[in-house]
């Protein structure tokens, strides 16, 4: 029967996920669970009761979340869980009872402990010869659980052998890479020495003072590469067990309620207080803390980055690669953070603005000592994921010189509480500067952009089309609404490409679909985008809880309330936005996208709206694709992608890997030989192009929100990662410069081909004209794609 609860409350449209303080022990998580269940029934698009069917789906999700490889539970365990809870979890949750979650998790902990003990014994007593003809499945998420302990033991011997084999091969690969690197460095040094004129003999320099000796690392502190394969395998599973044991009731309830939420659809999600805080940080690109990037480092957290101008940077004592071992709030006692989860350490360091946190560190330059540093927390801007741009001036070698504006956008961010951060405002600043430089065309790069703020997607669309509808939405009643962009005329009306891939989702698909339907921009990239055509809103659970109850750990519910539709009537749900000009991609064979998720909402269509076509005539897509096909046929980079995609597809379909060392070694050597050959051939092409164009290559200038208004553009040679990210990071020993520098013209293949497509568009196309407002002619040609 239908269980009614409160009426919906208004909340921000669209969603993602982020961090807050640890929940208080008093929080009644049974009450939280009950309210989340009622909220799902009453607010989710499907209006699905939390009944026996959903109960079964919830149990399925929970077991798979805990044991996604199906290696810890047995069929006997799973059968027992189903007998007790497959049709009763709804009753338990609605009666505020979360004991099933705890019971199942405790059994899971015990099963992991049993397997780690089995692994220890097997490593001590079994001899793994790696000479059998056996294979093991790569992905086991669809495989049945082992029938009993005997079958599980047999499976685990294969798992252990596979892990040891992988570590052994990793060691051999590392040795090979280090040898090649040393040979390359020696050759470079010899070449440099040969090029120098004979130097005069120098007076011998005074010997440098001896450095103090540092005690040898204990076995527990060894770097992974210094451990044997057996030690590394044991360490990995021991870490897993420690992590599982560290989870408290709040964490278990988070897993449990997330399993309930995803029973409704893949994008409905219960978010703990930590995750809610992380979501807000992700959307606003700022947080209150010390301005340091932490990474897990064995028994603590390592400083892997420091935000330039942030609290830690201004204080000046914290250095890269320092290791945090304890944290104190103000004048309170220190809390040891060794072996704590990274998230818990982060929570302890973040806090209220203008409060002090003290951290005890092991300095990178004095591993035998410790130091205490006090830092006053403050607001920290996160610049790395903000919009940025490039101005690319093409070389004469490629034909008539073009000025190409390239805007990089990794998500649609917005400060939903204070309105101080805006994607559309940032992109407009970059766009106007590019226009000031008189660009011939624009590329909006939405690759790997998972979405974000719906409002920002609509405003951003308005920078490129005149006032009109951008997206339609339908709620559970079937009521259809639409949202318009309100700019009287576009900021930029020149030639335009939107570059997408399979990871472009949600708000990215709204913008790409609208610009495609308006005949405003050419869509280039993977065959289609992700296919997420649903709207989520954030509902704070505490708003639904009784007034006097403890609500500190209640968290939030991100719930699907509507479906998106294109203005031409189709949905992007499941199908995504199909590229006008598809390029070969590895992602096209990967099991990603909405269609590969569990419980996705179905695809459907609604009537189109009327909207003004930006241009009366369609793009010359057939001619452009013919040119692209001709280029790709002779482009080794894309031929390599096609070849690798086929190999990967065969491997995915096979879903097994050999436990025979000779076979694995042969596969590794074949792969390395093939990739070495590709690298060698690429290096030849890079050299040939460099010799041909001399100094007349691409001229690239980088624009960030910090330098966009400055009179002089920053050339690529003067641009650093720190300028883009605003963060100083530990230097990596990366040979050969940036990834792009390894390709001809110093431009990665998809980027270079997109520039070629823009040139095709300029050569084949007539100047775009803004059509008078007419009835939409696109509906008949609509590629059914959805939001």
Describe it:
The chain is α+β, with helices and mostly antiparallel strands. Among the domains are: 288-381, Pdz3 Domain; 388-535 and 564-774, 2-enoyl-CoA Hydratase, Chain A, domain 1 (Alpha-Beta Complex). It has 19 helices and 24 strands. The strands form 5 sheets. An 8-stranded mixed beta sheet has the order 20-17-16-13-12-11-22-23, sandwiched between helices. Strand 14 and strand 15 (480-485) form a beta hairpin. Helix 12 packs parallel to helix 13 (454-461) and helix 15 (621-633) crosses helix 19 (749-764). The chain is globular, with a radius of gyration of 29 Å. The relative contact order is 0.12. Mean pLDDT is 87; it is low at 1-25, 199-221, 733-737 and 768-787.
Q: Strand tally, please? A: 24
Q: CATH-wise, what's the superfamily of one domain?
A: 2-enoyl-CoA Hydratase, Chain A, domain 1
Order of the strands making up the biggest sheet: 20-17-16-13-12-11-22-23
> Main β-sheet, in a few words?
8 strands, mixed
Rounded average pLDDT: 87
Query: What is CATH's topology name of one domain?
Result: 2-enoyl-CoA Hydratase, Chain A, domain 1
